[in-house]
Amino acid sequence: MRMRRRFPKKNKVSYLQTIPRELTTHILSRVAASSAADLSSIKQSCQELREIAEDSYVYQHASLDKFPIVEWSPICEKKQKFLNKCKESSNPEIWYREALLDFFNKKDYALALRKFSKAAEAGHVQALYLCCIMMLLSGNQRRGVGMIAKIKKDGIRVGLCCRKLIEELRQIWVLNPLLSQSRLLCSKHHNRYRPRTNNWSGEEYEDEDEDDCTTCVAARHIKLICACSHL
Ligand SMILES: [Zn+2]
Fold first, then answer.
1. Ligand 1: centre distance to CA 169 (Å)
2. For 116-125, what is the mean pLDDT?
């Protein structure tokens, strides 16, 4: 029979204690940005991670993808607590969602612009796109087209932003009368990018970003967004 060698017991040090806390916090923030459900699972795995996951930096970066923009029925205490913590931690997605409702539902232009700008300054790309759209819808078309051109140049896929916005508008009551009035036409009489229908296919969103006339792109987006109005 083979004998096992016995080693003296050492003081146990958890692997987590060997990693700088800032690094663990950063890793957890990346997990939270990808999936709030995964973060919740990690928090249940050990006390140490649970404590680190309570850092406001983690809540600031948490994804809200699994939460609808408007809750039509009361949500459980755990979810409400999570959303409250995200708001307290200045999660830009919270500002963005509030601004969406402020503008498209409550028609409060000034408040919406403040929140979209705040979210955009925190790196929220979709909020930056919404600043352009608000500019276009409020009649400041020259400036709005200029802003769209700039963010396109900076590499933002405005077609994908538009698709995301339309999906979001389908979740809320769009009651802003600006959407009933707003029309934008390209003075260069381009017609290549005139929308064929109000239902834009994914491929068309992908195709339009590169070299298209920005005014035509903006006109197309405005037409699709206005079609979401409930007025
Ligand atoms: Zn054009």
1. 26
2. 96
